[in-house]
Please model this.
Amino acid sequence: MRTLRAIWKLLRGLWHVLVGMWTIYVRFPQFNAEQREMRVQAWALQFLALWDIHLKVLGQPVSNGPALIVANHISWLDISVIHAARHCRFVSKSDIRDWPLVGMLATGAGTLYIERTSRKDALRMVKDMADAMKNGDVVAVFPEGTTSDGRDVLPFHANLIQSAIQAEAPVQPMSLQFLDARSGEPSFAPCYIGDDTLLGSIWRTLTAPRITAVVRFGDLQWAQGRDRRAWSHDLREEIIRLRDARH
Model:
């Protein structure tokens, strides 16, 4: 029965992705920016519901831009979870743009792409992020640069934090956890690390007991004279504190 339920959820999820692609191609040209943001958030909420993932949001997300959201990174599922909690423009590695289906959805949601191995491209991305925030956008980034299993937060790469300094924008730290909905213990089903394949992680998520995705937003921070390295260190410490706080 568990396998049959997983297959049913997979098929419903694929249909939802196709509907999302149709919306981007056909409806988005008719929408203004606010309407697009609302549709992306609604799509993400529906996607989680179809896959029986409960979203729990703690704290208050930033109401409008300019702002930079900084979060820990666990899974391919993170972007949908955060979109469901608060629409934002993500910074993602450039190869996601070429992923079947997912790349189209990411681009339609306003994702900014970066070549992670190129220092020159990182400088370009800092400028693009700062410009987006100056235009009133909320941008989100995973400073770990890769995923972990959620038991620890990897060291942060500070480069992209410079964008908030350039834009004179606040940063909102945000922690992300996946929990077993019944026991409240960490769920490692959505993890996407090491030798995990994307399909393997998706299937593990679909066959796992019900999952709760916990998003906790911290207070807005301003640079207050800190350079990107000092600020990055403080943001990592705050995200660890948020993750470990009692729900």
In short: Helices lie at 2-27, 33-50, 78-85, 102-108, 119-134, 162-167, 198-207, 228-244. The mean pLDDT is 90. Strands lie at 53-58, 67-71, 89-93, 112-114, 138-141, 171-180, 211-217. The chain has eight helices and seven strands.
